[in-house]
User: Fold this.
Amino acid sequence: MNREPFSLTASEAVRLGPGRMPKEALPASSLIYSSPATLSYNSPGANGFGVKRAALVMPESVMLLVSPGCCGRNSTILSRESGYADRMFYLNMDETDLVMSRHLNKIPQAVAEIVGVPEKRPKVVFVCFTCVDALLGTDPDPVCRRAEELAGVRVIPCYMYALTREGTKPPMALIRDTLYGELARRPVDPHAVNLLGYFAPLLEDSELYPMFRKAGLTRIREISRCGTYGEFLEMGSANFNLVLNPEADFAAQRLLERTGMPYIDLTRCYAVGRIAKQYELLGAAIGVTFDDRPYREEARQRLEDFRKDHPALTFALGQMLNANPFELAAALLSYGYGVSEIFAPYTRTDFPYLREIAERSPDTAIYFGTSPSMMNYRSGAGADAAVGRDAPWYEPDAVPVGFCSDVQPFGYRGLIAFLNEMEAAL
Amino acid sequence: MKGLMKYLSPFAPDISGAVSVFFRLGGVSVILDAGGCTGNSCGFDEPRWFTEKSAVFSAGLRDLDAILGRDRAMLDKTAEVLEQFDANFLAIIGSPVPAVIGTDFRGLVREAERRFRIPAAAVETNGMDLYDRGASGAYLELVRIAAAGEKRSGNAADGAGPVAVFGCTPLDLAPGDDSEAVRERLQRKYPDREILIVGDRFEDLKKLPSAELTVVTAPSGAAAAREMERRWNIPWRAGYPVGEALIGDRNGGASRENQRGETGRGGSVLIVHQAVFADALGRVIREREREVSIRTATFFDLPGGRPDGCILLRGEDDFIRLIDENSFDRIYADPLLERACAGCGAEFIPLPHFAVSGSAAPQNFPEARPRRVSGSTAAGSR
Assistant:
């Protein structure tokens, strides 16, 4: 009887290679353990931005969740904590609905009723369907059209299909497509760019804003900064989309196909060299040269100061943080720090980082949070800091560093934000 | 409209009730879902999840599992887990997915018992019913496991029979209570009897057939109590031992009200909670106040589990109508319900119920201060 939590060292992961991923890296290949740590990310919508909260980033919108009561239960708590309770409405299904699809007939009237509840009438109603309707093969479009006619507001179907989480269009990719699918092409504004990927804005002091403005991109739009539905629709005039989170790739690709709006990916990194390279490649792609030197110098200086104050630290990294834990681990190791554990499954795209980790710290342990064997996990790796909302559960004696705000760090100032949060926690 | 919630939000579902009953019994619980239902149950309806370990897992169903009904794959995954734990039993718990695809739960139990050689239980929850129904199904399965154990090893009791208590999950209990608090209060009432809180220890199940009395502290336990009566002729009664912290502490929110009541406060009072506790709290207030008229209501209903006079609320429309049609002076209810009371003019006294507002509510009752319900009304626009 094996009672040890499953883990690999970084060197073992690299030796196995992307062709022989452990089955623990694929949650659906085993039973799933929802430890308090994994609840931050494993239950769709459990924390941060799940489908429901993400859809409600659309200004002047409300949501009707059409589902068994259990699917909306987390919103009872989270919507109050995150301040969107007044914009959530529920149409609970019963067994007769399941058999007869009777709930579909109720949706138009339900939408007409809920738009009258908020003090200010919403402009958009999302009707969110769940696994049950996926299995029933419901076609939501005619229902939403009928609701739109009856209620006189825009009604958009969206999907919280947990059954498709490891599919080609997982729920969080699909919801981005739903949101940006509202955009119609407007006359192109050469000075406009959209930042896609996150449901909250970048840090106010991110260097992206001044660097872009200096390069002539003076109208930088993010959905989370749009105050009205009309303002959101203006995103249709962007010269191009900048995708900051790969989960938005599908939506960006569909925008390209549907409206001809091009897109470029930019990866969030914490290694200074990689950040510089990203800006260089972006500049080459859009035909400008970004002067990132002052920001790079500022980040280097902050890093040096931090290293002087904290010359030797060992980190445990979780999965629920504003970083790719493998890229952050590789960056921290390159700065001379230790990384004892990473609690996150890796994918094929993480191998460049894994190789760096294995080179500098071959024994860094990689755990898979949803593996049932994690019930047997006992802390004690001796990390100084546990980074990520989930990491302190694994390493309760380490200094907890959430680094998981809704507002998103990015680039050099993102690294500075990380170091500042570390400094405050230590 | 039936099923539409404009002011409230969903209560704890049947899945959470079942998980809650099995939580401490040293079994392996597998919820047949994609992951979200398990996350909801553990993360939002089970306060013990953050302080105690329990082997609760999601089956991690994906679309092809549901379409092809790959039960064997689920049992294979379960087998891997059972290699890592000494499980007392296996519990298989439903969700909307098996409800749609028509999973054969009884067949799964038979196959699991044959393959793993441990007792197996199945609760056909569908995510559409409320927690009490799931808890009720789980309690019934425990009685069935106890009966099967009795056949194998005989009646384990010696001396006076114990008092078996059903309905003590965190979803059932009064604010501030835990099962140990209920056990201590019942021990004072039955000093010569062992008090078995069903759900606290797996070993206790074998004593169930020899119980002298079953006490039901929430409607979720009523069906199991009736089954105990049917199988072993054990009498049962419903009642909740209301704690002093709730009714006697001068520092407490409700107790302050009650103390004022002793000087003749009275008036018209509505209490909304699970029916057995609401009834018990109503009796306490009635004893302490003069000229008081008390009505109780509940969203949670099981056949035979609701005391006479307790009003069944089938949804938020029923609740709003009840408030509209009656001029209550005081309303004791979960804070989640306050939004639907807006404008009714009653004094709203928060009475948290974990099955309603979960971790969003202050569970420490004295911290929940009474307040006058005013402002724009839910009712006014109805």
